[in-house]
Amino acid sequence: MKKPTPYTISARMYDVISFEWPIYRAGRTAAIDLMALSKGSHVLDIGCGTGLNFALLQRQIGPTGSITGVDSSPQMLEQARRRATSAGWENVTLISADATELDSVDLGDHVPFDAAISTYALSLMAQWQIALDAMIGATRAGGVVAVVDMQKPVGRAELWTPLARLACRLGGSDIDAHPWAAMPTRLDTVQPASVRGGHIQVRVGSVPSV
Ligand SMILES: C[S@@+](CC[C@H](N)C(=O)[O-])C[C@H]1O[C@@H](n2cnc3c(N)ncnc32)[C@H](O)[C@@H]1O
Asked: Could you tell which of 8, 103, 124 is best to mutate to test the pocket of ligand 1, judged by most ligand atoms within 8 Å of the CB?
């Protein structure tokens, strides 16, 4: 049996206890603004959780686009499913899978995707490089890949470090993983953004043609 995680135990409470509005919303907004997706884009959301990215993505892609959310927690996916159903989004597909083992997973008809995003999820995965490579591999040349994740706050915000560490520890993420740092070697024109005292790092790049 798999070990319980915060995302299997507290999925129903996640949106309430995750500091979404005061802190973490800013990262997803910055990333999705930089992605600037066209109507009709097909997007892969890795570690999609309860689907907090979906409404922001839907505004850009519209009903002719699609979102394919992948998460290893069926409980988080159940919340994402409820969100999609209550909003009437028929263009959302949810897949229960480990993002570090996507080679053997059927991601559906929209592969290669026009874009892939992962927010606050890669730093939870010991083998995040594999998941990042899978995101890039599933996105078409010229498509967009976005990563939002956490680090210790910097500058004057450094004094919030104990709180940031606690938030990461409670969520099971490694505050020192810095998965975005691997993006410039794998992607073209990586645009950076940094919010909430540097605690939230955003990178959006495009997939090179081979
Ligand atoms: C902090 S939550 C972030 C959820 C969502 N992306 C957001 O921005 O709110 C991290 C999510 O990553 C998922 N996750 C962790 N390890 C994973 C893995 N190896 N494969 C797929 N999902 C994973 C967890 O189940 C959880 O839903």
From this structure: 124
* Å from CA of 44 to ligand 1 middle: 13
Q: Is residue 60, in this structure, part of any structural domain at all?
A: yes
Nearest to 32 by CA among 58, 4, 10: 58
**φ, ψ for residue 151, nearest 5 deg:** -145, 180
- For the stretch 152-193, pLDDT in tens is 999 999 999 999 999 889 889 999 999 999 999 999 999 999
Quote the domain boundaries for residue 35.
6-204
CATH number reported for the structural domain that contains residue 200 in this entry: 3.40.50.150
Quote the ligand 1 centre to 36 CA distance (angstroms).
23
